[in-house]
Amino acid sequence: MALPVWLVSLVQPVLVPLCFIVAWAVMGLTFWHLVVTVRDGVNQATVMHKIPCAECCYFTNDYRLKCPIHPKIALSEAAIDCTDFEDSGLR
């Protein structure tokens, strides 16, 4: 059953701008979500690059025992200020 022409002509002046605004709002929110995701990823990567375990002389590079001194905090954010860190000089 087709809509009457007068009903379509009555709704169209409201519906076209509304759809335009909704479409651009969806595009804007998608772009904003991408920006926030990239920003959070960069912040997380910055924190992870502060973990000094890979350059420590006690780091074993073995998945079973990464650090014999602090095995529970090895390669975690808790190891950022490790008091037993000694540079291995590999860099």
From TrEMBL:
Keywords, ordered alphabetically: Membrane, Transmembrane, Transmembrane helix
Residues spanning the membrane: 14-35
Protein name per UniProt: Uncharacterized protein
